Amino acid sequence: MSDPILSVRKAVKTYGEFRALDAVDLDIREGEFLTLLGPSGSGKTTLLSAIAGFTALSAGEVHARGSNITRLPPEKRDFAMVFQGYALFPTMTVAENVGYPLRVRKYGRSALQARVRDCLDLVQMGQFADRMPHQLSGGQQQRIALARALSFEPDVLLLDEPLSALDKKLRADLQWELKALHERLGVTFIYVTHDQDEALSMSDRIVILKDGAIQQEGAPGALYDWPRTRFVANFLGKSNFISADVVGQGAEGLTVEAAGQRFTLAPRPGLAPQGPVSLALRPERIRLGAPGQEAFTGRVRQISYLGERCQVLVDHDVLGEVLVSQPTWHAGLRPEPQMDVSFGWGAGACVPLLET
To answer: What span, in angstroms and rounded, lies between the C-alpha atoms of 314 and 249?
Structure first.
């Protein structure tokens, strides 16, 4: 594997007693779409700002292509940034906004104009070159901000919640466009968001932060299927949590018991072969049936219709509230509030957590 294009080593940022970053270590590969994901106050924007050079670290280092850039000012780093609020110059036309980084870098007139045309075409905004920012919609302004950031062909593109101000449908459309643009250009993207769906759909790798520290990192599917902690399991998607006891171990994995029922877990390195264990169970992995069809019996408390899916909250005497998610199309059982139902899941559906 090639050396990382960017490395963060033991990064610490404190504000008085508050520790915004807590000894963060991170490598970013060239051409990667890396997403920093976490709730408000988790440290993701602070980390992005430290990489950009806008925030000075209290301790630790940032390296780019093997060189220490920790004290290098932002304008000396070959990075570009797209902000949540677009940050377009209101008195400049679209073309002038896109060309601004090139003028600063002393591009010649003809080279600048050609590059501006190319960047506007790249984001499908060539016909808007002479308009002012206030004449554009939010989605169009975001495209211009992206074109401006890409104009000088940066090594790394930093994106700080760039779609958060857009409505849901436009946001979904631009997610596809951003992913396609990344694949076409091959530029390294470091993307900050608190939106789990956005992170899952766009990223090559996700880094989940909490309280200034990395909780877990990996490919979207690996993180979703194998969360290490309760926080990760509940932040990246939704999970039910079940307390169980390990009662046996065989070739197929661990046998556990919960609420009087035994079932098998897929093996997981680092898990104790005996004693109590906390399990994460995704709502979409649970089957609903008429009473007696599945292992557990409960009563429907609440139903939320979400179009393609229906979420059903079931009360169980021992397990408590259990959230079930099932497709609405050709659903085997159509639950109603206060209906008695049974529920269960297949082998390997539950994931044992390594930390609570």
So the answer is: 30
pLDDT band at 117 (very low <50, low <70, confident <90, very high): very high
Is 72 inside a domain boundary? yes
Provide the token pair at 170: 């436009």
Question: Are both 226 and 249 inside the same structural domain?
Answer: no
**Predicted TM-score of the model (pTM):** 0.92
User: Of 193, 210, 231, which marks where a domain is finished?
Assistant: 231
Q: What is the CA radius of gyration of the chain?
A: 24
- Over residues 55-103, the pLDDT tens digits come to 999 999 999 999 999 999 998 998 999 988 778 999 999 999 999 999 9
Q: Which of 182, 200, 231 is at the close of a domain?
A: 231
Structural domain that includes position 211: 6-231
- Rounded (10°) angle between helices 109-122 and 138-150: 130
Q: Using the predicted structure, report yes or no on whether residue 1 has a pLDDT greater than 70.
A: no
DSSP characters over 119-176? HHHHTT-GGGTTS-GGGS-HHHHHHHHHHHHHTT--SEEEEESTTTTS-HHHHHHHHH
Are 217 and 256 in a shared domain?
A: no
**CA 302-305-306 angle, 5° bins:** 135
Distance between start and end Cα atoms, the chain: 33
Amino acid of residue 172? A
